Amino acid sequence: MTNLTHATVAAVHHAAEESSHSITHMMVHLMIQLAVIIIVAKSGGYLAQRFLKMPAVLGELASGMIIGPYALGGKIHLPTLGTLFAENHGFAASAELYGIATLASIILLFLAGLETDLASFLRYSVVGSVVGLGGLLASFILGDLIAVVWPGNGIDTFMDPAALFLGVISVATSVGITARILAEKRKMSSPEGVTILAGAVFDDVFGIVTLAIVMGMANVRLSGGEVNWIEIGIIAAKAIGFFVVVTALGLIFARKITSAIKQFKSKEMIVSTCFGLALLLAGLAEMAGLAMIIGAYIMGLALSRTDLAHEIEHHMRGTYNILVPIFFCVMGMMVDFTAMKPVLLFGSVYSLLAIASKVLGCGIPAWAMRFNLRGSIRIGLGMLPRGEVALIVAGIGLASGIIDQGIFGVSIMMTVITTLLAPPLLVKSFEGGSGLRKEMAGGSEDIQSIELTFPSRDITEFLINRFIRALQNEEFFVHHLQTDQPTYQVRKDDIMFVLIEDGMTLRINAPAEHQHIARLMLVEELLSLSDLLEATQKMEDLQSMGNNLLAGMF
Amino acid sequence: MNLKKLLIKESILPNLKPGSKEEIIRQIVDFVASSGKITDRDSAREAVLAREEKMSTGMQNGIAIPHGKSDSVDQLTVAVAICREGTDFDAMDGNPSRIFIMTLSPANRVGPHIQFLAEISKILSRPELSEKLIEASTTSEMLALLTA
Question: Under an 8 A CB cutoff, do A474 and B115 touch?
Fold first, then answer.
């Protein structure tokens, strides 16, 4: 009996030791993988940005392709740990590494939702929606159809899950690349710029809804069922219902939720709680048969209209910068070059159609609305680049077994080609005159400028800093925008205005209804400046202060 | 901003008597002090007067927003006073002032102090509303106009 007990204890002990050894072993392997990924992906991203003037995501993807299991990573053997990156049951990443990549994709979509400018989307919603919808339909239908008509790939119906995925992958525009070019060319607020940005929001939101529907249909098909139109209707209603209901609830209760969260009085707590909620909604979305990123995006979207949006974004930026490149690098690692060879021609045609579908799908509605040919081409090209969302959708397709390595490679190829082509073409297209058929009827924007010019830049900068502190004391959130001129976005509840330091001039662009607060606070700060000047008169002689400071130094 | 939380019937003084700037401020500070919200009425009055010395808070269309920061209050304290006859408050447009919105806020406390003034100024910038406010006969009517 005692012997038996001893034996059992020893066995348990041994098993525990072994499992702890294997977990430690697994974690050591993971840490080394992460170290390699972070350093290589970040360097790749940096090189792409610095020398090729391309988005970092391309460098990160390329890094992944180089260090992945199908390239260098499969050839590097580490002592005691084995291959650096090995294929795992036909999948390029281990479960734990893929877990971290998934977390990164959730952060990415949460922040994408958070940065969505719903207000400007609503303002330009008509033309933006038409342009976005045109691009969405054209790219979805062409992306799906090419898979159906292409011979020898085993896809023969429009409703085939793989075909549907090819359709969805080519839908989502990555407006980040376009936005950067528009900002550099100072075309962000041009009619084309505004239309592209509004169109991209539409495209994002409905791209996600399309993904939700396709996920639902694919799940039915994968479990052996036949998708009929009634079922499609139910799935679509469920997906759209989830999206609309949760987003609407989020937008309605965002203020209440954030004011409850604000009780914590600690920014770290506020940000962590909001991120926790994003993860929770991601889990709920997956449980509802949608994708996790949909939940994360909705949470971001709901919070985007609150004054916490910038705080969350600001606090999560560091995590984002470290984790998101891991996601893109892991996506790159999944590209199996041998699986891609047979589909290279298909990939080229798919990419070509992805270009044509956006240029025509967005350009034609733009042309029909109020733009001339030049403006329509600009809009079409602006909507061209695919990026993060396409990669995430492709990753989901690969992980769930709906698409194979070859199709996954094709998706990456399309993403890279459209992202590479968009910047030079867009820059070229913005040469020349107006893109409007007739000049837009007078600016209907209610934004007015308040300007104060001071005798020196130092005084302007000093007053702006004091003004910002006063705003923070009034519980406003002041967000420093990364622009050439020092620019700050000031938000509190539904109040929003922009503060710009333009040389010696302080400028505030505020809607008429929010000018009162800006003006009153500026007056108080101007008066406090005069107090300060008075106080300096009373200061001890500067010469003697200086002498006291330097006395005894030499 | 929810004005209803800050403005109550008891913070409205409907019959301010005309007088000099000092007298007007004294009347309003005394009114607020009578509700026990001010610990040291002299220092509260001095804070408001000091702000007036720098620049008058008499605005246009009969509205004035005297305010000051003082540790004689422990939270944002507000009062609305109406002087139907109008009184000289050194207003920007030279016209007599009739509606006074006074705020006192603790010196180094974070909170929406100026925002309160901004919100109420926004409401009063509608001339028909300030007229109705002056014509209102009870503090309940006045409160209803300001917080509608």
Answer: yes
In order of start, what are the domains of chain B with their CATH numbers? 3-147 (3.40.930.10)
For the packed helices A388-399 and A191-222, what is the interaxial angle rounded to 10 degrees? Answer: 0
Q: A472, A475, A508, A520: best mutation site toward chain B, by most B Cβ within 10 Å?
A: A520
- Cite the active site residues of B: 67
- Is the domain of A192 the same as that of A146? yes
How far away is chain A from the Cα of B49, in angstroms, using its nearest Cα?
14
Which pLDDT band holds residue A464 (cuts at 50, 70, 90)?
very high
ipTM score for this prediction: 0.92
DSSP letter (8 states) at residue B36: T
Closest residue to A516, CB basis, from B51, B54, B118: B118
CA-CA distance, B107 to B110, in Å (whole number)? 9
B126 contacts chain A (CB < 8 A): no
In a domain, A34, yes or no: no
User: What integer pLDDT is reported at residue A376 of this predicted model?
Assistant: 92
Cβ separation A520–B125 shorter than 8 A: no
Q: What is the distance between the alpha carbons of residues A38 and A43, in angstroms, rounded to a whole number? A: 8
From chain B, the residues in CB contact with A265 under 8 A are none
Mark whether A354 and A493 lie in a shared domain: no
Task: Give the closest-approach CA distance of A125 to chain B in angstroms.
Answer: 29
Reduced to 3 states (helix: H, G, I; strand: E, B; else coil), residue A497 is strand
End of a domain among A381, A399, A429?
A429
User: In this structure, are A424 and A462 located in the same domain?
Assistant: no
Q: Which of A339, A284, A275 is nearest to A91 (CA)?
A: A339
CA A391 to chain centre: 12
Question: A with B: how many residue pairs have Cβ under 8 Å apart?
Answer: 40
When mean pLDDT is compared across A201-205, A482-486, A526-530, the lowest value belongs to: A482-486
How much is the pLDDT for B56? 94
DSSP characters over A409-426 = HHHHHHHHHHHHHHHHHH
Closest residue in A to B106 (Cα) is A473
Identify the bridge partners of residue A478 per DSSP, sorted by sequence position. A490
Q: Do A408 and A454 reside in the same domain of the chain?
A: no
Q: Has residue A37 got a pLDDT over 90? A: yes
- pLDDT value, residue A166: 92
Structural domain of A349: 95-429
The per-residue pLDDT for A99 is 92
Q: Using CB atoms, which residue from B110, B118, B125 is nearest to A473?
A: B110
* Count of domains forming chain A: 2
Check pLDDT > 80 for residue B43.
yes
Is it the case that residue A495 has pLDDT exceeding 60? yes
Q: Are A415 and A475 found together in one domain?
A: no
Out of A83-87, A249-253, A348-352, A474-478, the most confident range is A348-352
Is B118 in Cβ contact with A475 (below 8 Å)?
Answer: no
Residue A50 included in any domain: no
pLDDT in the model for residue A323: 92
Q: What is the pLDDT of residue A293?
A: 81
Provide the pLDDT for residue A117: 67
- Residue A173's closest CA among A415, A428, A509, A523? A415
List pLDDT tens digits, range A46-71. Answer: 998 888 877 788 889 899 999 999 88
- What strand order describes the sheet that includes A477-481? A447-453, A505-511, A495-502, A487-492, A477-481
pLDDT at residue A440 tops 50: no
Do residues A332 and A467 share a domain? no
Residue A228 has pLDDT above 70, yes or no: no
Q: What is the pLDDT of residue A346?
A: 92
Do A241 and A386 have their domain in common? yes
| Three-class DSSP category at A523 | helix
Instruction: Count, in order, helices (H) and strands (E) of chain B.
Output: 6, 5
Q: DSSP letters of A171-200?
A: T-B-HHHHHHHHHHTT-TTSHHHHHHHHHH
